[in-house]
Design a protein that fits this description.
Shape of chain B: elongated
Structural class of chain C: alpha+beta
Chains: A mainly alpha (265), B alpha+beta (346), C alpha+beta (408)
Oligomer: heterotrimer
Strand content of chain B: 15-25%
Largest sheet of chain C: 12 strands, mixed
Radius of gyration of chain C: 21 Å
Largest interface: A-C, 41 and 49 residues
Protein name (chain A): ABC transporter permease
Low-confidence stretches of chain C: 62-92, 155-177, 289-333
Low-confidence stretches of chain B: 1-24, 341-346
CATH topology of the largest domain in chain C: outer membrane lipoprotein receptor (LolB), chain A
Protein name (chain C): DUF2092 domain-containing protein
Number of domains of chain C: 2
Pfam families (chain A): ABC2_membrane_2
Distance between the termini of chain C: 76 Å
Order of helices and strands of chain C: HHEHHHEEEEEHEEEEEEHHHEEHEEEEH
Radius of gyration of chain B: 24 Å
Organism (chain A): Arthrobacter wenxiniae
Keywords (chain A): Membrane, Transmembrane, Transmembrane helix
Strand content of chain C: 25-35%
Number of helices of chain B: 11
Largest sheet of chain B: 6 strands, mixed
């Protein structure tokens, strides 16, 4: 496990992706600082609040990153899990070590999950630092209009981070499964990212509303429910249950596929 | 995982009678009717392989003859379509977790994380086995690197390695722990002559240490120099296996006669049941020609003794200036068995 | 092959999880009339709950119409709430109204006596609140970052009179189109006439509360409404869920029900509101209004669609709640009705719909040009706007409206 993480974090690509994610809140903060407050109601949610309170940088960044940039990076990492090893040829050496197929899969998934955490943390950390460096801190208005002090707000933001991180776990499991289908890592990454986008498109089609609660992206923007007063936990619970379902189903599919797969790469 | 053993498989690789099996000791690798099909293609067809303990076993065959597929099945990477395999006395892939830690392998060329150093790569692969002792890892990695002559390149990133260095690193990976069996697929690929020699010495020292070494190669010379046993594959089938000496002997012995009386010599050899080829003339015409004759397999048992041949030649007035009996080279045997020589099969 | 079977087993287990077997709910036997009396006797004064509202009215579904789209109201009314009050029929207001009719919503409601009410419409990444504390009513829209404070002339007392005229548990200050089960039930029951067939369905559970299911079926074939089911809390008589089914349909065209409900007082702080800094705040006080204008409570829009004309003339949900009594007051006297009971047709005279409205893209997307004007047809109600700006509406087929218009 330690070795899996060290391999992942010794890769320049991993750091490049985390840096790109961290750059998004910084860019937002700098852009707002330079051009001034946006008009109320324009642009992504929370953007117009940034000049009043720096902590909104994190939230604006998460609104932007959750549907696109985070799934993108998670798709790269999750799609790479098995297919990447197969592509390098190291998969056969890991298996004859022997790493054990189920164990390898588990370690790979945990690695991808740790990346989900690192990616979310990277946005959170960079956003908090950039926001507090460029804008005033202080009490933060919640969606319901109540003011809470900075520490409570930071606590809420950490909760939001946990929500976003959990949101990505289902996608990571889907990526892991796709990754066991091919020896071409780029193909697995592209397929995973395409699925993430397709799920969100389907979620936007009202004709398919029966399908919506089953889409892994359905609750992605539900993190705002943690910014209400009182906190609305339903979406957190629903999201966690849904993601767990995806992890179980696609984890099992990945195992079913990988346990009997001929490793010919 | 594996299907039922083939009850009435196709005729197995016709091993020569005298090279029929391991010379003592339990078989380290034993397969029964091992078969692998990819769709309609049969990559390995009813393989009955037996590798005796302590042997340096050469696994010969042209590219594409099913060597690597066999190795993948032996190591549990691929599932056999039918047939069984046992490695170190245990079922594969059923007892994979118990078997593989005792096996060092180089499969179809080395493969590493290019963005990690050689040392980091070896540590990663060693850590992949949950039972490999963590305390000694650093030392074992250093030792393995030294053993293949990479002690000074360990901290370099693998993407900066040459093919030969990667090959050495792959061997180092196989040597991370004391192994009872080493499966080396084309171990000298990409190595310069110096490296090839080192690998040969390495294999010999491993064998001397009591390990069984299973070397696959399409290069005869390599096998001939280091192996005690060999098996020959052709289009997925085993066509011969046994000790190297046995394989050589199984080839057709050659009678070589140097004489100015080429015509008479051929007549005599023919009458003895041998199959003489056309005479070849050396640079010095006065020295006469060289006549070679093969001993047909059918006549092998009742063939005349060499001294009887010489006596017959002399009796017939052939001026025999030189006479020798040569057992065929392994290469002749190899070409004879595989038919296609070194062409890629299929 | 256990490895291959495993995904199937896990998938089955995961999918089976949410599907719970529905057990029979045993409650003391009651007649429909007893349940109706139970409903009328509802005295719930304190609750915290979450409402789920879904509608499938057969309207063209336009994902970007909903109020969830960023800052819809703020963008649509550049002049702010004041402008919205002056001209309630802005595209933004309409699209908010339509948003409630076409997309599902989650609404949290808090109630502590008649003077403490709070409604939170949970939009994606935003929230709209109405908070009433004594004589003060705040509306807050986090997306537009606006707030309005309204001071009522005198504290209101719970209404008495006709059963369900304002059932406790309803929210008279709720944003226009947040129909609570109580409000809907009140409207339905109020509009009930002898042509209604009353029966009981099988008992159910809503948000953990066992409930009788009162079923109202119009005997007339002239109405589009096929059935209205009201789940009535067996203990308190509080309406827990109202389901409206269109004639000839199996699935609900409109459903509002609690997904969570606690019959306890929410914390007092729930009803205290101070707009956060940076919010643009409008302050108003309301002149004394003798009576609450009839025919326009949120439920009316759907359950008594005859009143659709009034909401069209009144501020739509996004507009400050305080404006609507005045405007409706101005608009209602001209409204006439024809027909009876479930098939009532409401007529608002020429000029009700300003000509500028034809330019509203949101409305244009929904209105179909038909003989005699433009029409909106849903599974539950129809609206006809004649070229001179008169509005005919009712829970009847469009043809009935066209007939009524032609008869003028």
């Amino acid at each position: 496990m330690a070795s899996e993480l060290s391999v992942m974090f010794r890769r320049r690509r991993t750091w490049a992706m985390l840096a790109a994610l961290a750059a998004i809140p910084v860019l937002i903060a700098v852009a707002v600082r330079v051009t001034g407050a946006g008009q109320s109601g324009h642009g992504p949610a929370f953007l117009d609040r940034i000049t009043q309170n720096g902590l909104f940088v994190v939230l604006t960044a998460l609104v932007l990153c959750t549907p696109l940039f985070l799934p993108l990076t998670v798709g790269v990492v999750a799609g790479d899990t098995v297919a990447g090893e197969a592509g390098l040829g190291t998969l056969r050496y890991l298996l004859v070590a022997p790493a054990g197929r189920a164990r390898l899969l588990l370690v790979k998934y945990v690695g991808a999950a740790v990346f989900c955490l690192a990616a979310t943390a990277s946005v959170l950390l960079a956003g908090t630092v950039a926001g507090l460096a460029l804008f005033p801190a202080g009490p933060v208005p919640l969606l319901s209009g109540e003011l809470v002090d900075g520490w409570t707000a930071e606590g809420r933001i950490l909760l939001v981070g946990a929500f976003v991180c959990v949101s990505l776990l289902g996608l990571a499991a889907v990526g892991l499964f796709i990754s066991t289908l091919t020896d071409v890592p780029v193909g697995a990454m592209a397929a995973t990212i395409a699925l993430a986008i397709a799920a969100q498109l389907l979620d936007a089609l009202p004709q398919l509303d029966w399908l919506h609660p089953w889409l892994f992206s359905h609750w992605w923007l539900g993190f705002a429910d943690l910014l209400r007063q009182p906190v609305e936990w339903t979406s957190f619970g629903n999201n966690a249950a849904l993601q767990l379902g995806y992890v179980l189903v696609f984890g099992a599919l990945a195992y079913g596929r990988f346990a009997t797969k001929d490793v010919l790469s | 995982m594996s299907g039922p053993p083939q009850g009435s498989g196709p005729p197995q690789g016709s091993g020569p009678p005298q090279g029929s099996g391991p010379d003592g000791g339990a078989a380290v690798i034993e397969t029964r009717g091992l078969t692998k099909r990819f769709g309609r293609q049969t990559a390995v067809d009813g393989l009955d392989l037996s590798v005796p303990a302590g042997a340096v076993f050469g696994f010969l065959g042209p590219n594409g003859s099913g060597k690597t597929t066999t190795i993948r099945m032996l190591l549990g990477l691929a599932n056999a379509t039918s047939g069984t395999a046992s490695v170190l006395g245990q079922d594969m892939p059923g007892r994979l977790d118990a078997v593989l830690p005792r096996v060092g392998a180089l499969v179809e060329g080395p493969a590493f994380y290019p963005f990690l150093s050689g040392t980091a790569n070896l540590r990663r692969l060693d850590a992949a086995d949950p039972h490999s002792p963590r305390a000694t890892r650093r030392q074992r990695v250093a030792d393995a690197l030294e053993r293949v002559g990479l002690q000074y390149a360990g901290s370099k990133k693998v993407k900066a390695y040459s093919l030969g260095m990667k090959q050495r690193l792959g061997l180092a990976n196989a040597l991370l722990r004391p192994r009872e069996l080493l499966v080396l697929d084309e171990p000298t690929n990409g190595l310069d002559p110096q490296g090839t020699r080192e690998v040969r010495n390495l294999v010999r020292s491993l064998a001397a240490g009591g390990a069984t070494v299973f070397v696959s190669s399409h290069l005869l010379a390599e096998v001939e120099q280091i192996c005690t046993h060999a098996a020959v594959m052709r289009t997925g089938r085993l066509v011969a296996q046994g000790t190297l000496a046995g394989l050589r002997a199984a080839g057709q012995p050659l009678v070589v006669v140097r004489t100015p009386d080429a015509g008479a010599a051929r007549r005599v050899l023919d009458s003895l049941g041998l199959v003489p080829g056309p005479p070849t003339h050396g640079a010095d015409m006065a020295d006469g020609a060289t006549v070679t004759a093969k001993l047909p397999a059918a006549a092998r048992d009742g063939a005349p003794r060499p001294e009887a041949i010489v006596a017959a030649l002399v009796a017939d007035g052939v001026r025999v200036r030189g006479f020798s009996m040569e057992s065929g080279s392994l290469e002749d045997r190899f070409v004879e068995l595989t038919g296609e020589g070194f062409d890629v099969a299929r | 092959m256990p490895a291959a079977a495993m995904p199937a087993v896990i998938a089955a287990a995961v999918l089976a999880g949410p599907l719970q077997a529905s057990a029979r709910i045993d409650l003391p036997a009651r007649t429909p009339e007893q349940v109706l009396a139970l409903l009328a006797g509802n005295k719930v004064q304190q609750l915290s709950g979450t409402l789920e509202e879904t509608a499938s009215l057969g309207l063209p579904q336009l994902p970007d119409l909903g109020p969830g789209s960023t800052g819809s109201s703020g963008r649509a009314t550049p002049g702010g709430p004041a402008a919205a009050a002056a001209n309630p029929l802005t595209a933004g207001n309409i699209s908010q109204l339509l948003g409630f009719l076409t997309t599902p919503h989650t609404v949290r409601v808090y109630l502590d006596g008649p003077a403490n009410q709070r409604v939170q419409v949970l939009d994606t990444l935003a929230e709209r609140d109405v908070i009433r504390h004594g004589p003060t009513v705040w509306t807050y829209d986090s997306g537009a970052n606006t707030a309005t404070e309204l001071t009522l002339p005198n504290p209101r007392r719970p209404k008495t009179g006709a059963p369900g005229a304002l059932a406790p548990g309803s929210f008279e200050w709720a944003p226009g189109a947040v129909p609570t089960p109580a409000a809907l039930a009140a409207e339905v029951v109020k509009g009930m006439d002898p042509s209604t067939q009353l029966s009981l369905g099988s008992n159910t559970t809503v948000a953990g509360h066992s409930a009788y299911v009162l079923q109202l079926v119009p005997r007339t074939g002239a109405s589009l409404i096929g059935k209205v089911s009201i789940a009535v809390d067996s203990g308190t008589g509080l309406p827990l869920r109202v389901t409206v089914t269109a004639r000839g349909q199996d699935s609900a065209a409109l459903e509002v029900g609690f997904s969570k409900l606690e019959l306890t007082a929410p914390p007092a702080s729930t009803f205290l509101f101070t707009p956060p800094p940076g919010t643009s705040v409008t302050r108003k006080s309301q002149p004394a209004v003798p009576t609450k204008p009839g025919g326009f409570t949120p439920g009316t829009v759907i359950t008594r669609p005859g009143a659709i004309a009034t909401p069209l003339a009144a501020p739509a949900p996004g507009a400050p709640a305080n404006d609507h009594p005045a405007v409706t007051h101005h608009a209602t006297p001209k409204v006439a009705t024809s027909g009876t009971g479930w098939a009532t047709i409401v007529e608002a005279p020429a000029g009700t719909v300003p000509a500028t409205l034809s330019g509203s893209p949101a409305l244009a997307q929904l209105l179909q040009p038909v003989a005699g004007g433009h029409a909106l047809s849903t599974t539950l109600f129809s609206v006809l706007i004649t070229p001179d700006g008169a509005v005919f509406a009712g829970a009847v087929p469009l043809a009935a409206l066209q007939q009524a218009a032609a008869a003028k």
